[in-house]
Design a protein that fits this description.
The chain has 144 residues and is mainly beta. The protein contains no helices and ten strands.
């Protein structure tokens, strides 16, 4: 049994990495936390919307993270990918490389922002899931 301190006010979703040593947590307060369960009970990385910061701290890529509540997060079971969906109508896909060496930190690189859903009554993309054997992403939104 382990207690994790996320700093997220309202947790909306979470998913465990296929290795079992990492966890992502999404919240209605626009935060996404990555936990390395072997390292600490506090998040290894917290991603949140900040209008003053446009540069991703790990890769120096320009990133604008979700501006509204995060509804769903999901790791791909076989590929080094994870996705998050939000009420802003977008899905963000990340490359998430986890190494077997405990001294090497996970590599998290933003890949793509997908916009295909419309926001209806303040709700956007409600759920994302990866297809188990392909790098395909399925999403469900409030726009039917």
């Amino acid at each position: 049994m382990k207690t994790l301190l996320s700093g997220v006010r309202w947790i909306s979703s979470m998913d465990v990495h296929p290795s079992g040593d990492h966890l992502i947590v999404g919240g209605y307060d626009r935060k996404l936390c990555w936990f390395d369960l072997e390292l600490s009970d506090k998040p290894y990385k917290v991603m949140r919307y900040d209008p003053t910061i446009w540069l991703h701290s790990l890769t120096n890529h320009l990133v604008r993270y979700h501006t509204r509540a995060i509804r769903s997060v999901h790791f791909h079971p076989t590929y080094p990918l994870f996705a998050s969906s939000s009420d802003d109508g977008s899905i963000q896909v990340f490359h998430a490389r986890v190494y077997n060496d405990l001294m090497t930190d996970p590599l998290i690189v933003p890949l793509k922002i997908l916009r295909g859903h419309d926001v209806k009554d303040g709700l956007g993309v409600l759920q994302v899931k990866w297809v188990p054997k392909q790098p395909w992403l399925v999403s469900a939104g409030a726009d039917s």
